[in-house]
Amino acid sequence: MKLRIFILLFVFGLMVSYGQEAPELNTTYRSENEKINNLVHTKLDVKFDFENRYLLGEAWITLEPHFYNVQDLTLDAKAMLIHKVSRDGKDLKYEYDGNKLTIDLANIYAKGDKYTIYIKYTARPEEVEQEGSVAISDAKGLYFIDHDGSDPDKPTQIWTQGETESSSCWFPTIDSPNQKSTQEISITVPDKYVTLSNGLLETQTENEDGTRTDYWKMDQKHAPYLFFMGVGEFSIVKDKWKDIEVDYYVEEEYEPYAMDIFGLTPEMIQFFSDYTGVEYVWQKYAQMVGRDYISGAMENTTAVLHGEMAYQLPGDLIDENTWESVIAHELFHHWFGDLVTTESWSNITVNESFANYSEYLWFEYKYGKDFADDHWYDQVQGYFNSGSETKDLVRFYYETREDMFDQVSYNKGGAVLHMLRNFVGDEAFKAGLELYLKDNMYGTGEAHELRIALEEVSGKDLNWFFNQWYFGSGHPKLDLSYIYSEEANMVTVKVKQSQENVFEFPLEIEVYEGESPKTYNVWVSKKEEAFSFKYTKKPKWVNVGASKTLLAEITDHKSTENYVYQYTHGKKYLDRREAIEGLAAGDQGNEIAFETLTAALSDPFYGLRILAIDKIDISMANAKNAIKIIEKIAENDEKTLVQAAAISKLAILQNTKYVYVFKQALQSKSNSVKGNALSALYEIDKEAAMSYVNSITNEEEIEGMKSALIPIYIKDKTEAQMPFVADNLIMGMFFTEDKETQNIYKEGFQWVAPSDNEEATQNLVDSFVQVGKQYKQFGADKMARQVLQQILTLKEESSYANKDVLIKIVQGGLQKMN
Ligand SMILES: [Zn+2]
Predict the structure, then answer these.
(1) How far apart are CA 244 and CA 530, in angstroms?
(2) Centroid of ligand 1 to alpha carbon of 352 (angstroms)
(3) Ligand 1: distance of its center to the CA of 730 in Å?
(4) If pLDDT is split at 50, 70 and 90, which confidence band does 516 have?
């Protein structure tokens, strides 16, 4: 699973934290579930009652005892109506409490005996009450989108979400990740819909009542949480890897762009097959984009579901495909997660940390090390900012299993794998993964099995590493300082750890006396340590942690000269990044520092060009040359994102000589270039900006430039666009970390909320109702109710002619919140 809501929830959490009680520390040991009966095969026959949002199902579940004899069977079946339970045509006695179905088998089965239970049932996803699967919604397992076709803006769709334990909302099963089953599903739908499930579509049968039955078959066993069904009107864009079908299920309007969004998938399958030494084992690979999906994406075996954020138009794709990492992530789960599955949620690292790290591996292969390291940097910052230093990566005490899907299991776990790879070396790392996969394929894994595989391959003991990084928490917080002794010709590097638990780790130290360094490998294991190195000429730079793989927060004490040397001689992304940040934070009036920052504007890696543009102070007296370079970049950097950053930088100068540049930029194909140019133009030539704004009528263009247009509509108080603004306010108010954006959107709220615009009021109310409901468990419902009440008061106190209509709209929203 890929959660795309970390930031959102972080910001949102701040907004609504008053509604939250601190969770009590859980003291229940979360073990692997005991295996008594094992799933063998699951055969389902399902159709849908759209009106009631029911699934009418028949299930044939084949099982066998794990080891000991069994006389009864307990299945998970949430909020169902059970109509019949039988075996070989004979009814069986059962008890059902709305959650567990306990069946008296009327027989004793021994290990090796297989038996099949038939169950006729109705699944009622709307009745399910359980711990949320994806943290932002009640976990219903089966979701009907616009089930009655009443929403003109939404197509009718059905999709499922099994992880963590929600497949048992739509079929009876043993809903545990340490179970595996082959499957057959017959799905009956109105003929206009296509279906997607795991495995291969074997047959399609037209029925007399205008429905069609699609029969999907999956011969390779996988865990119940990976079972999937998707139904709706989709275009299927066909791709291929070797002789394996690779399909993209998108809504018709995105059909022309499906290849631009997903088209690298076959190359990814090849790359991950090569990297792991295990060729993609499954029979097909399909990806579907679903409406109102509750997470980022989900690795349902051979049938991945993506959220709408996957949809991008050419104007966005030219900047970057922001979904590429997710596409890689879900695909890599087909090795780590689907083929070898975590035995319990406590060990989810063996799924999610690998999927997270696959994003790095793909980027490194496809776009080079700088690009991958840039991604690593963001991931690590995400973990640092998450405040999760007390959480072990493998965690046996958690509050809810959903808590495991956090920045520790994902971001930190990915960074831990990166360190592990650096420690054992590339070849041993790959061989270790291959061994782990081959030893456990179609089965389960836990962190110890990964350790054992890597130990076997490398010959190294890795307990110290795993105890510290997998079964422990936190990370080193280092303070680095340097003492140069001119008499002794010696530099001493002091390494101080300020966090509570002392970490041990290898550290590469490069001492640059001339152009090439001398490298020393030391082992850090104490709270305070010093390492001394002789030199003949005083070093210009001592590069501590030269591999740049250590997961640590580092406070460094370097001089401007050190940073200048580091920027020009550092080979790695992080060397250059640190230098740019160090120089920018220091005295930019220093000539050599500023020259180096100016040079960084032309860094070979575009991400660092953007960083340099952001950081350099162009109000400095000596900035002429830098400004010239930024002007050039604004017009023709090969990366549109860099161009866009340069345009925003020039905007700071408020110089009318750039009107031409910004107007030119409005002709760009890139939404980021156009958007930033429009914002910049608005600051120096409102009339020109507004005439451009008013010329846009193309909906696609408005959507693409939304983030530039809305602040302008708000500042300009463009009445005609008030409904559009109202529709988007909540995003800018709560779902961004940028204070300036928040303020503009809040200003927008102050404009819309007291207005007499009915459509805008409706949109505003609707958006708060939706978010309030969707993020209920974070207290958003309370917040939404408060805001709606506030809007109501404003309308009540007004003297508008349509006051009554406005009041009704808000009251309608408040009612929906109850
Ligand atoms: Zn994932």
Answers:
(1) 57
(2) 5
(3) 27
(4) confident
